[in-house]
Fold these 4 entries.
Entry 1:
Amino acid sequence: MKPAVSPVMRLVPVLRNLVRTHRLERADPARLDAERRRLLVGLVRHAQANVPRYRELIAPETAAAFRGPEDLPSLPTLDRAEFHDRAPGDMLAAGFTTANTKAGTTSGSSGIPITIRNSERDLGRLRASYLYDMLAAGLRPWDRMAYFRVNPFLRHPLERFGLLRTFHIDTSGTLDEQVEAFLAARPTFLVGFPHVIASVVEELERRGVRYRGARRVLFGGERLTPTARALVLGHLGARCHEVYASVEVFTIARTCHRGSLHLRSADVVVELEQEDGSVVPADGTREAEGEILVTRLHSEAMPLIRYRLGDRVTVGPAGCGCGRHTPVVLRVQGRSQDRFRGHDGREFYADFLTYRVQDFPEVSRMQLVQERPAQVTVRVVLTPGAAASVTERIGAAVREAVPGFDVSVERVRSIAPEANGKIRIVKVEPAAG
């Protein structure tokens, strides 16, 4: 039986993994490829030998012949629904149980909540990944970090020395409670969903309070309109970075100092599934779009191989001049299941419509909702003083993009987030499917 997860955060594994991450961040392509292959081959063989479900899915001879990313299409994908329906014992490696691993549960915004279990070694890598995200975004040891999230987090021992102090802004509370917690914390570094941070900043502006203590903002989890982003950064006088991450696979991509969202190729292998079922590797050789399949290279207790995260993304070549040799995520287009349907029953990804809306500088928040085929309701939160006619112009822009659709534009005071605190910019109601 494997040892239980420590009830306190262990810094040594975190620091060890932090050094490894930094070492590989700018590794040359040959070295990075060799490391990925080594980890991927070990992961596949570990899963086949030790995980009950993978023993059913992967034949011993397939695992023995596996050589690297090019062989991934020979393996089955792991569907979110199947993962949810399986007993934990089916997905846990030998020696691991619910008693000696720590659970991480997704919000269930897709309708299917997933619980991932991590070993102490997995957690060391997870914490190092998140810490590196913040260091790459400009975190300093003496910063005061405000985390905008529902659940609190495990404290770390460095706080007793006044280093990396963390403050929980409970996003399940009222806006007034969040603002008061924010002002009491006096943070210099902010981490959270963009629209939540934007809401706090807008309330500060409404109150006439100018907060200039923040140096950096680390956005993650959703897209913010250019107008709302400019408001946040302009009010705070801060610089921003972004991450693309999930509970299941940790950080998938993070921005460099040039603003490019680089895949973390030392930790994940990404494939893009096309409409016809074929798969394109996100290897930086060309631009490709599709449903993302993620293999988490460091997953000891509960391996995730070719996991359907549920997002549709576009990945481009590794052409950034920052010194990294990894592919760049050009767009995260939202949930793959949120596809609009036309009169003829054909479905399409509606993310392109959002750019027709956010191009209007008066739009602070937006959401496109389909309740029946060939129909879309555009909900917008407009900036103060926006002319009433802007909703007509937004409607015209959307109708031009989807001729024949019944398009309505609603000016609203706010847009309700999902249970996890995110706003789904494109949303399909069940009746529309």
Entry 2:
Amino acid sequence: MRSVVFDLDGTLADTSADLLAAANACFTDMGLAAPLSAADAITAFAGGRAMLRLGSDRLALGWDEAAITTRYERLLEVYAEVIVNETRLYPGAVAAVERLRAEGIAAAVCTNKPVDLADVLLRRLGVRDLFAVVVGAGSLAVRKPDPAPLHHTLALMGGDRRRTVLIGDTITDRETGRNAGIPVTLVTFGPEGADVARHAPEALLDHYDDLDRIVAPFIGRP
């Protein structure tokens, strides 16, 4: 089966504002200042622990990994409450996935976001039914860039590795594809913008209107 696998945060949706709000709450509910701003979107897409480490450094808290893990649980609680306050799908994403499905191409999500939160987010955005499979942190014992989550995604959806492309936005996605032997397209509208070209993906995607043309060489014809 021809398939296109999407990362979620920074690829299908801009989730940075809600992620940063959840991270800041971990500091403000302790009576501290909110150390993170919209300029930290790249860190937001690196995960909750990355945001907490950055915030701790800025506030000179000196948190060790045990403290980070404790506050990370609080971050997840807050994030579940604010998950779609500011999050928006990138322009053209829904129409692009619908076009794939109309052509008999399966779509799935493979993310490092906790799988239950990924599922909730997609449902709250009204697009869960567009994706055959959602794999995330907790689906397996490892995360991207380990290739296992991507291989697991393909196994669940019945995808053919030789007719699959991964759409992502960071070096993590680039390395996941390389490790899995699957071509990668990186979006230029994510947190790194056009700078993602330095990761040398097989292709770049400037807008979802162009998705069909970009993925065609990698997934082939029916």
Entry 3:
Amino acid sequence: MLSRIANTMYWMNRYVERAENYARFMDVNFNLSLESTPDAIQQWKPLVVITGDWDLYESLYETVEKEKVIYFLGFDPQNPNSVYNSIRHARENARAIRPELTKEVWEQINYLYYFVMEELEKKSWKENDPRLFFKKVKEGCQLLYGILAISISRNDGWHFGKIGQLIERADKTSRVLDVKYHILLTTPQAVGTPFDLAQWAALLKSVSAYDMYRKKYGKLTALNISEFLILDKVFPRSINFCLIEAEKSLNAITGNEGGFTNTAEKQLGKLRSQLEFTDVNDIFDSGLHEYIDTFQKRLNEVSTAIYDSFFANSHQQTSLNIENQ
């Protein structure tokens, strides 16, 4: 497969996953804000921090307000990672490889694009309850995942797309965990309080993990929630699961069944192995924030290795494909 096509499939899926995650975060955070004291900074600043775009937000806005954060994350053309830009970039990547996609995939991406454009024109972020927008973005992305799953052959292009989706998902799961532990809970006295437990529940809901977590552990605890979202091997949004499945797709592309044949396989295999032999108590002993910070750096190294191993020789790289560091 041409590296240009592989690169485009990879980024198309990353952008769709990014848009869906942003809609998730905003939806859950909006619900949580209805049950908490109306402190905009405490409620909405962490949402921007999750995305890694706090510096950009500060350069554009003087204050943290609910409406401004929703606009910034959902619609702002100046934010390269907003839902609007993520869906727009996904569509432009899809258009660049239109012959590689099915009619159904293209129609769904088009639907998402025009829906977000319409909501931008309607200024939906100014509505008292913007949850319908979040819901439709999530449902639209999930429908696209289903169409991709049932209509695209499991060839190299599909696997590159899957790797992009899984790496983006692992990154966002790590970010939402890090922000909860490192920023939202600022005082040790708040540990175990109803406010603390409400935040942990919201965190699980933001990655659709609440029901599966309850089935496995029952009681909400920071240790168990962290173990579930980082190390669980069968929950599809845990970091470990994402790396396991990404490695499977990478091996399917290379035909490799053991060891490594390129830098991407080496870096991804090392990172996945580290999680496989990690204990959650070890993570907490060394510091959850420190562990996640190191993980994100190594995940970025995996992304760089994938680019170097498969995409660097392409002479048609698009400026749309900018990693969210």
Entry 4:
Amino acid sequence: MQHLDVQVVERGLAWLSAGETIWFCTVLSTFGSSPRAPGSIMVARGDGRHLGSLSGGCVEEDFLARVQRGEFSQRVSVERYGDQRDRPAVEHRLPVQLPCGGILEVLIERLTPEHGNRQHLAELLAVLRGQRQKIRTVSLVDGCSSLFPVAHTDGDTVSVTADIASIRVGPASRLVIAGLSSVARTCAEFAVALGYEVILCEPREEEYRDFHLAGVRLEKIFPSRFIAEAGNCHQQTAVVAMTHDPRIDDLAMMEAVKTDAFYIGVMGSRRTSDKRATRLLSTGGLTAEELDRIHMPIGLALGSKTPAEIALAVMADILRVQRGIRRDAL
């Protein structure tokens, strides 16, 4: 899940609490090219105000216009966008065509401001802010929804049977950056744009004194302390260190391997990485298995030279691992 999803559910819960009816939309499936992946969400009110997205804009425009015309009054429905067979003769409108030529199906839930709906969104918000994934099920018959624990963290984001949609939800993707550097700054900018919750840990006042980056939370403590605190690194967390300062980088790695973080990486040449591996094994007390969890050198081998190029290689590798793609499959 993206950090934006947290804001979407927060907004939906706030609107319900204020007595508003909302439409909670989830991308169920995509065919061909499509701007958003299955599981992407959007929330809207009857006056057209909304947060989140389902596509590059064309789907949202059509959906919001139809909501304001009084459509989608049923508790639950599934709408198919981008298909040439989409009912233009009946509804006197042209079918929405995605610019990329893809097709997507959207689950649309109309939620009134009753206690059960508010409670469900509050529970969903807790999952997004929490530590573990759950499965959100929605009946395609009556719209009843529930959240269930999952035994395995892998699997399809969305699966649909004849009458049930099952959506895997979990902690919003988080990037913990150990220490500030030119590469770290650019990496943070990329991560914010990609929808990550970004936390920068920097204890050196001379480094963070003039630091400000929209969407980035600054923690003025040693990264190793932050990483070691319970709940700060969950299954959707990536931890990266890019300062060349062993007090920052090495200590961060030593704590990160004890967490559930899905990606752990530290910047340095092959020679520097070999020396760091020796230190972490001998004086850091890491096992060979823990050391294998660390990506060093960090990032994809793109021949990167500038801070922006290195940051791009780092974020590309994080995304690769998060999507479960092997390096040799690129």
